[in-house]
């Protein structure tokens, strides 16, 4: 059994066939999915999807692209919304200095609020980071000094030093279809160096479809292709990679009640 630890089932790409998308994932051996919140003002719709399917969970959070668009959001509001049992994580949140859609100071402010909410609730922080390795490293270390929390760097494509920092802090690194891309040699070298006990797999669907599905809309069923690539990089069978990454997911996302494999 595999878990798609990060997808966006609320996006319009899935509106016409959501039931079938979830069914295809199940038929492909995906035993759980986490649909991720990127705008708290849209949380009710995301929660409704999680409640609709027994094997789908959700998060609550504000993407750094939109950090300036919800100025009133604070840790208290995130904690309040995270009380629902279908919410298994805080985020996605973080820093994106590639697009800079929100001012960096505002991104950092909202990121600190999410860290505080993750610490208070005990739910894992789901981090988006792009072109911000230095500040991300500093803020994660700063956050841990204020009190422990758990965390996953999702859709990882940053430098090896940040990945190693995450592992040193006890965090997890989640791999998307990017690891299968032709030009992702540096990322693949990073994956080879990381302990498999700290790895998760995801789709980030509808984006970043893995090889051999490049050019298509991504969906949770395709997480098997990413997992196959990671298994090869780590010298494991696909069955063993699925077992380890699913166990990692259980350890991190403690509120998600996944079925026990036969």
How many H/I helical runs? 9
Shape: globular
The percent of residues in helical segments reads 25-40%
Mean pLDDT: 97
**Oligomeric status of the shown chains?**
single chain
Strand content: 15-25%
Task: Please characterize this protein's 3D structure.
- With 262 residues, this protein is of the alpha/beta class.
- 40% of the residues lie in helices and 16% in strands.
- The protein contains nine helices and eight strands.
- Strands 1-2-3-4-5-6-7-8 form an eight-stranded parallel sheet.
- Helix 3 crosses helix 4 (104-121).
- The model has no long low-confidence stretch (mean pLDDT 97).
SSE topology:
Elements: E1 2-7, H1 18-27, E2 30-35, H2 43-52, E3 56-60, H3 75-81, E4 87-96, H4 104-121, E5 125-130, H5 133-146, E6 151-153, H6 160-168, E7 172-175, H7 185-193, E8 199-201, H8 223-234, H9 238-252
Parallel strand pairs: 1-2, 2-3, 3-4, 4-5, 5-6, 6-7, 7-8
Helix pairs in contact: 3-4, 5-6, 8-9
Jot down its keywords.
8 strands, single chain, globular, about 260 residues
Overview in brief:
With 262 residues, the chain is an alpha/beta fold. The chain has helices at 18-27, 43-52, 75-81, 104-121, 133-146, 160-168, 185-193, 223-234, 238-252; strands spanning 2-7, 30-35, 56-60, 87-96, 125-130, 151-153, 172-175, 199-201.
